[in-house]
Amino acid sequence: MQAKGADRERVLEVLHDVTREAVESASEATGVAAADVYGTGSFYTLLDGERRRTRVCQGLSCQLAGAVDCAERLRAEGHEVEWVSCLGQCDRAPAALDPELEVLAPRERGAVLPDDPELPVNLGGTDRPPGEALARARALGPEGVLEAIEASGLQGRGGAGFPAAIKWRAVRAQADPERYVVCNADEAEPGTFKDREVMLRRPFLLLEGLAIAAHTVGASEVYIYIRGEFRAERRSLEAALAAAGEALAGLRFHLVSGHGAYICGEETALLESMEGKRGMPRLKPPFPTERGFRGKPTLINNVETLACVPSVVLRGGEWFRALGRTEPGTKLYCVSGHVARPGVYELPLGVCLDELVEAAGGYVGTPQAFSPGGASSGFLPMSERRRPLDFRGLAETGSMLGSAGVVVLNESVDLAAAARWQAVFFEDESCGQCAPCRIGARVLRRALDRYLADGDPAALDAVDDVAWEMREGSICGLGMTAALPLTSAREHFPSAFGRRGPDA
Ligand SMILES: Cc1cc2nc3c(=O)[nH]c(=O)nc-3n(C[C@H](O)[C@H](O)[C@H](O)COP(=O)(O)O)c2cc1C
Ligand code: SF4
Q1: Domain residues for 27?
Q2: Do residue 211 and residue 350 come from a single domain?
Q3: How far is the CA of 285 from the centre of ligand 1 (A)?
Q4: Which residues contact 287 (CB under 8 A, 6 or more apart)?
Q5: What is the CATH number for 447?
Q6: Would you say 366 and 411 are in contact if contact means Cβ atoms under 8 Å apart?
Q7: What's the first-to-final CA gap in the chain, in angstroms?
Q8: Which of these, 197, 205, 196, lies nearest to 113 by C-alpha position?
Q9: Ligand having the closest approach to the CA of 480
């Protein structure tokens, strides 16, 4: 129970560590019981002072690029090293973060192509303070903007592809006049680093999209929840907010940094975190559009979704829709792994893998498999290389476009080892509140450990049953999809899961 007058929301703002001293001081400052403050803080890896070491990324792309060697090298240089889930630097793998959370990587950030002013986001373009599109939105009025978004067919770019117009209308239709707009900038899906580029290169564009969203749904408070490791990205947004000045008059912007928990990208976990709690997803319904931040109607959109909005308003919904091939608009595809030029490519929604990789300079080695949309999308065989990378087409394969973090694996990769890397990720990142997810993720990782140690496929006998239970018994997308890397790899690459070793 929380004491009357306690300032729960400030807990994560004032807590910088989970030492006894830090917890007691945060408890004193907020009025929340010390045990409760500790329970909240210990959920987040960036608040664990014991772990203030160099963090080496164990995400798929970094593993492919030699994360183990990178960790060894850093240890030899005197770093105290710990493994962490994906750092969102797949284009410069293998990556690490120093104790101050600055990136250590062997190369600069990847390509952002093409550079074309006719593209809605155009990462390579000149970023100008909010102005023209916002003025146009004001002239159109909320209904005019909603009509443009509807005509554009814009689908949310955070993973689920939910139509933006439906969500915006739902918030606008609420009777409660206190409403919020929240930008999900928690980008932490392995293979994904597009929102990072938007924040670094087009912060004004994002702010303008947010201002239009707030104007349309009738909100005056805007929150941007930024992944805690994204220090440079936060600085970029702070600078843009300071420079935007009067252009954003009438709106209050708040930047909230995460504290190192992948699950906080899930929208209701994100809201819990903003309210100063452990980032555990809520049961839905009610959806955030009805009861979101502080129990009030809340519009939550991904960075890329919001960055598309200014051009939709300026050039019209039909213009945006026509840019897509199989579904509306362009898409920021991230590509990494075994390709010549990892990076973010803004291409018509619905290009296929071969086209994306051609833009990225071609395959490195002979491609064997790809993961089309982050860890949650599993692995697909190269027979799918000409399938449109869109929401509908990939769902038909049992996979998903998700956040469009495409990772290519060539024939040098052991698919069972790759499935294990993904299993480790989900085991580490499960919030633990649903038993099927919490226990199932561990069971799958252990089954893979046994199989890789003994080479006996019997170690994997229970996988399909466990996967079913996780899918059916989990309350959020993490648990529902966590088994997919293993089940899809077994389905499409059975030879990678046969008997191994001298008796094979
Ligand atoms: C486990 C999990 C992680 C997620 N991570 C992110 C994320 O990092 N960024 C994001 O925008 N959406 C993420 N989502 C999707 C959000 O819950 C939500 O659907 C999205 O922010 C809505 O924005 P959109 O409609 O613009 O896509 C995640 C979902 C799940 C289940
Ligand atoms: S499915 Fe997993 S991550 Fe999602 S709420 Fe349940 S335990 Fe947490």
Answers
A1: 8-42
A2: no
A3: 16
A4: 170
A5: 1.20.1440.230
A6: yes
A7: 59
A8: 197
A9: 2
